[in-house]
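Can't attach files on this board, so I'm pasting raw text. These are the components:
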Amino acid sequence: MKKQKFDSLYALLLIVAVWYLLYFSIDSAIISSPTAVIKVFAANFSSEILPHLLMSFYRITAAVLVSLILGVSIGLLTGMHPKIDRYLAPLIYLLYPIPKIAFLPVFMLLFGLGDLSKIILLIVIVIFQIIVTTRDGVRSIDSKYFASARSLGMDRLDIYQHLVLPAVFPGILTALRITIGTSIAVLFFAENFAVRYGIGYYIMNSWSMVNYLKMYSGIIAVSLLGYFLFKGIDLLEDKFCSWQKLSDKN
Amino acid sequence: MIEVKELDFAYQKEKVLKNINLEVKKGESLAVIGPSGCGKTTLLYLLAGLEEADRGTIKINSQLLTGIRDRSGVILQDYGLFPWKTVYNNLALGLKIRGAAGQEIKEKVNSALKRLKISELKDKYPAELSGGQKQRVAVGRSLVLAPDLLLMDEPFSALDALTREEMQNLILEIYARENFTYVLVTHDIAEAAFLGRKIAVIKEGKIAAVLENPHFGEKALREKEEFFELQKKLRNLMSLEAEGEDKDEKTEI
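---
Top answer:
Structure tokens for the assembled complex are below.
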């Protein structure tokens, strides 16, 4: 644990050092002083930044949860039933590469200007990664485990609960890590349309008002949001997937 | 206990087992030996209810086998332990599935851990165990279900010679103490001679011979002349058949 804390501290110091380097080497207002930004960040965090951050956190969490429930279900279904996969795989392959972000205006028209359209945009981007990872995870389960499960008398539901889900869970967490990076980037874009709250809005609004100190404060907040989401996934991994880190003795 | 009649099984049109007839009495132990690909594992899977025969019947305790039996314990090659469950939870799994109560699970699992001398491993994951320890867990996972029939598919093939003998002794110990019938599939001649009261030799999907092993279970059997004689006999039988003799012989046990 101590070592991990040190790792985070090292990363923080390195980023601040590079930032200072840029600040001193580029003589422009667009690169603000880290000290000044941190002061503004601290002064405005609870009053200004936090409400925006919480709104973004809500949108990401809602989108990720829905994507997880739907994506894992579809992934399990297609992984366990090749027949279903035969019909669904072409659909997934055709829809996965589409630049979904271009559909934001369509979603806003269909689902309103509020949160729903943004959450749906995030879902359609995140869900494919989860579907594909889950499906491939199911397929890569060694058949000996299925024989073992059946020999113990497991029915279909038991097999999902005790075999398939635990086996694909580490893969799902990896997919989550990747999708969280993507979701934050997409949300930053989506929050520039018809919203008054959201960290994306806060950053772009500060930028357009030429308040670089606040803009950088917002960027720090995004970074911290990502950091805590990633740490959350690490915690889940430590709790449920510690078996994975053990190297087999044989 | 086990009655197999005119059993045929094909895998993708290739006949794996042909007209198998077999009888194992209650409390008896049968070792099935044969070269790789002879169909012995398939026979065990059929007895476990993991596969369905194309023709013929299997009766266990006079009841037609139609699927997995609650009281059949199965130990598969590579142990089949779930890597995401601790030793304790691997043992508890079968009981949980059968709807046993929490207290009952705890008592049975702890008792099995104690009997197999692996109590100190109960919070470890399979990846942290040696081959012999994993094997004990696999045996334990079957034992907690109090099986009347234990089916083992090359259970000790991945172990070193000493650990293998230790595990074979353990099986005999448990067998002497608890009241069950077992069928063991192996390609190891010494193992078949040590663990089978009856030894069936399978060749190309057919039962080619059945030997009685009157010295089964005797102390220090491994050092006795008869043990080597039996192995010699088995080796001869297996190599004779490998040359293609007695091709159409149908033997019933």
